[in-house]
Specification:
Layout: H1 2-31, H2 39-49, H3 53-60, H4 64-72, H5 81-95, E1 106-107, E2 173-176, H6 188-191, E3 197-202, E4 208-211, E5 216-219, H7 225-233, E6 253-256, H8 258-263, H9 272-277, H10 285-292, E7 296-297, E8 305-313, E9 316-323, H11 332-335, H12 343-356, H13 364-375, E10 379-381, E11 392-394, E12 439-441, H14 446-449, E13 453-459, H15 462-467, E14 472-473, E15 478-481, E16 491-496, E17 504-507, E18 510-513, E19 533-537, H16 538-546, E20 555-558, E21 562-563, H17 567-583, H18 592-599, H19 602-605, H20 607-626, H21 652-677, E22 683-685, E23 688-693, E24 723-730, H22 731-740
Parallel strand pairs: 2-5, 3-6, 6-9
Antiparallel strand pairs: 1-2, 3-4, 4-5, 7-8, 8-9, 10-11, 12-22, 13-23, 13-24, 14-21, 15-20, 16-19, 16-20, 17-18, 22-23
Helix pairs in contact: 2-5, 3-4, 12-20, 13-20, 16-21, 17-20
């Protein structure tokens, strides 16, 4: 008995000690709350290491949105994850110390002398772009295919800090580049210490200065365009590290203002003839001077976006990209008034885009396409042979370095594969693949006419969401007769889907009854029911099976070599979009009510950040469209090849698959919503759907219960695939518009945003 009592006492003592130790540990944990770096430093460390928010979230067994909140400072990590997160940051801080400690530049004190810097000081207001998260991003960009002599493979996404990460003072720092002949280390941090790009400007005295990210200002000693290019490749230390270990580093980008153009012998603006040609003539003095210094231009010549290079030597590229805003390089549809910004602000804006997406090297469409190649270079370095030599070989998962022929049904009109067709032959759906975005509308029912308003909802980054996880072909197609449909095989399928009755379909595991007359068909962009066999991309045929119907293809062009080629592209653009929207006050984990409130007027909070958002969205849309680029003049005639066909990235099948999946995603949500609420859209345009309702907000008709959306239906939020409020107009407005144009099925989704009737594409 005594022994048993002794054991009980001992157990109680140990239990009490454990409680006390636990309480002490809790206090220590509380004291350690201030040990974490600032939110800005947390993001810098992650991006400098090349880790994604998903990777950290997976390691800490939490959500990616939670990591984003920790990096934005909206929430703080709590035990037990806090200690693990602190340990991770501590380890990253040892490997990636704050940049700027030993910059290989010479500081020059600004003076008030007439020949000193007199340009605008970067703004310091909290709402200005200079106070935006440019400081929080790491320069990780790459654009060009790997050289013919590949370098040894390096770790993917090797990121380095940039000057944007250092805190900015109230005045810009004035520096000169390292003197000519100064040894430049191969260390990424030293090679690209001045960031991915510079905006070059000249004052009335001829003094030339260059503005970079993070408030950087460099004196430019170059006196000619050729010497400016040489300076950019040597002393300026510009560029960005590769996005893939098998690729190459991003070329320096020089953005020349109108004053800088004139300083270096270029016109401030192109003449009408030069605008039509898209370039200066080959006989222009500036072009001749470049040629005299052994610099070359690509086939597009010296235009708004130009590439000046010398042939690679020892596997090292020698290339500089030029951007000339005064020559309309920055399309106002996507870049708004960016071309008119002061040089310092333009450098910040383009720098943020470069760091989060990639260094621009053309239109947003060109940049979107080049980003695909940067993430999946066509070649890689082989394993060393017996002599230790490496060779260039195909990079698995890429599109390769050689173009492949598309299937005849995938070829647009005028393609060489169709040269034997009669001149005015119009192909039917059984001859051509017509996967396009929705443009569908119907008349309102009597019940809908009694509703008060029309409310539009718009899918965020719809085409990006369509690319996420999509399996696409990597190589040439194989023709097969009477194939068995496989939803995992990308390709084009000739199949009759006219038997599918939308009045009874499967939604998930259950059959549901719908009013088919109020629904668009998911199989055609017009929403009309197909009338017989037609060509479809894999996602469309797979959706027919998902609706509960059998399919029997007559023939197909299948791509057995396939993969998720667009996943990295989607992830990078998604992260760029969400991060920039967060900077504008729109959080990824906000409640529906807070999300709608945050979206109200978000562009006015920081117009320059809003431009970056528009450019990111245009990069998605344009990049997908560029996969099937059509002839651009140049004397082309139907049946002849055009320049874009020589690219490995000319892939109309991939474009068709993305659009097909995007349209299917829209229809799936429409069916879910109709089955649950009995509400049907009255118009759909691409990624916008319009409903007739009594309220004015999406919350007045989207079925949220206890803050949770309908599974598989519309969901409010900022992430790609989720929806936002596009606009609200009255039913009387809509019916009046249709009466005015005598068009009972006028697509009101085109004008729902602000009620203005226009035929212009707003880029959404």
């Amino acid at each position: 008995m005594r022994d048993r009592c002794r054991v009980v006492v001992e157990v109680n003592r140990v239990s009490t000690e454990n409680e006390l130790f636990g309480a002490v540990d809790a206090l220590l944990e509380q004291v350690a709350q201030d040990d974490l770096p600032t939110p800005e430093e947390r993001r810098r460390l992650r991006e400098a290491s090349g880790l994604s928010q998903e990777q950290i979230a997976k390691a800490l067994k939490t959500r990616r949105e939670t990591i984003g909140n920790w990096e934005s400072g909206e929430t703080e990590p709590r035990p037990p994850k806090r200690a693990a997160y602190a340990r991770l940051l501590e380890g990253l801080a040892e490997r990636f110390p704050p940049p700027g400690a030993d910059l290989p530049v010479v500081e020059v004190e600004s003076t008030a002398a007439p020949d000193a810097f007199t340009g605008p000081t970067p703004p310091t207001d909290a709402r200005s772009l200079s106070a935006s998260p440019l400081r929080d991003a790491a320069a990780r960009t790459e654009l060009e295919n790997p050289p013919s002599t590949p370098a040894p493979t390096a770790p993917a996404e090797q990121a380095v800090p940039s000057p944007a990460d250092t805190p900015r003072s109230t005045s810009a720092s004035r520096r000169t580049a390292a003197p000519a002949g100064t040894a430049v280390s191969d260390g990424t941090g030293e090679r690209f210490v001045n960031g991915p790009l510079l905006v070059v400007d000249a004052d009335t005295t001829g003094q030339v200065v260059a503005y970079g990210v993070g408030g950087l200002v460099l004196d430019v000693p170059a006196t000619s365009l050729a010497s400016l290019v040489e300076w950019a490749l040597t002393e300026a230390r510009l560029g960005a590290p590769r996005l893939n270990g098998s690729g190459s580093d991003a070329d320096p980008l020089l953005v020349l203002t109108a004053a800088a153009c004139e300083r270096y012998g270029l016109p401030a603006a192109l003449s009408k003839e030069e605008q039509l040609a898209g370039r200066l003539t080959d006989g222009h003095k500036a072009v001749k001077q470049l040629a005299a210094q052994d610099w070359r231009l690509t086939k597009r010549g010296l235009g708004p976006w130009a590439r000046i290079y010398r042939p690679a030597q020892a596997g090292t590229r020698r290339c500089v990209q030029l951007c000339l805003p005064s020559w309309n390089a920055l399309d106002t549809r996507h870049w708004a008034d960016a071309a008119g910004l002061p040089p310092a602000e333009l450098a910040h804006l383009l720098g943020l885009y470069a760091m989060r997406v990639t260094t621009p090297r053309g239109s947003t469409a060109v940049t979107g396409l080049e980003l695909m190649t940067a993430l999946h270079p066509p070649t890689r370095a082989s394993e060393p042979d017996a002599t230790g030599r490496r060779y260039s070989e195909h990079n698995p998962g890429s599109l390769g370095k050689d173009p492949v022929d598309c299937a005849p049904c995938e070829a647009p009109d005028g393609h060489p594969l169709l040269a034997d067709l009669p001149r005015f032959h119009r192909r039917t759906p059984a001859e051509v693949l017509l996967e396009e975005a929705y443009d569908w509308a119907r008349e309102l029912t009597d019940a809908e006419c009694l509703r008060r308003n029309l409310v539009g909802i718009d899918v965020n980054m719809a085409f990006a969401a369509g690319a996420n996880g999509l399996i696409v072909g990597l190589g040439a197609p194989t023709h097969v007769d009477n194939p068995v449909f496989d939803p995992k095989l990308p390709g084009s399928w000739l199949v009759d889907l006219s038997h599918i009755d939308l009045s009874r379909v499967k939604s998930g595991k259950n059959w549901v009854d719908l009013d088919a007359s109020l629904l668009p068909s998911p199989f055609t962009p017009t929403g009309h029911r197909p009338e017989g066999p037609a060509w479809y991309a894999t996602p469309t045929v797979a959706y027919a099976q998902e609706l509960g119907y059998d399919v029997a293809p007559l023939e197909a062009y299948i791509r057995y070599d396939n993969g998720r080629y667009l996943d990295g592209w989607y992830n990078r653009l998604r992260d760029a979009y969400i991060a920039t929207m967060a900077d504008l006050g729109v959080s990824a984990d906000a409640s529906p009510e807070k999300f709608l409130a945050a979206m109200d007027g978000y562009r006015r909070r920081d117009p320059q950040l809003a431009i970056v958002v528009s450019a990111i969205k245009a990069t998605v849309k344009g990049g997908i469209g560029k996969l099937r680029e059509r002839p651009r003049g140049e004397g082309w005639k139907p049946g002849e090849p055009w320049r874009a066909l020589a690219r490995p990235t000319w892939r109309p099948d991939i474009r068709a698959a993305v659009i097909s999946r995007t349209r299917v995603n829209m229809h799936r949500k429409i069916v879910k919503h109709a089955a649950f609420t009995g509400q049907y859209p009255i118009a759909i345009l691409s990624d916008c759907a319009v409903y007739a309702v009594d309220g004015t907000s999406p919350l007045d008709f989207l079925p949220y219960r206890e803050g949770k959306p309908l599974p598989g239906g519309w969901r409010l939020g900022v992430s790609p695939g989720m929806v936002k409020h596009e606009g609200t107009q009255s039913v009387l407005w809509g019916e009046g518009l249709r009466d005015r144009f005598d068009a009972p099925e006028l697509n009101l989704a085109r004008y729902i945003k602000d009620g203005t009737v226009t035929d212009q594409d707003n880029g959404e």
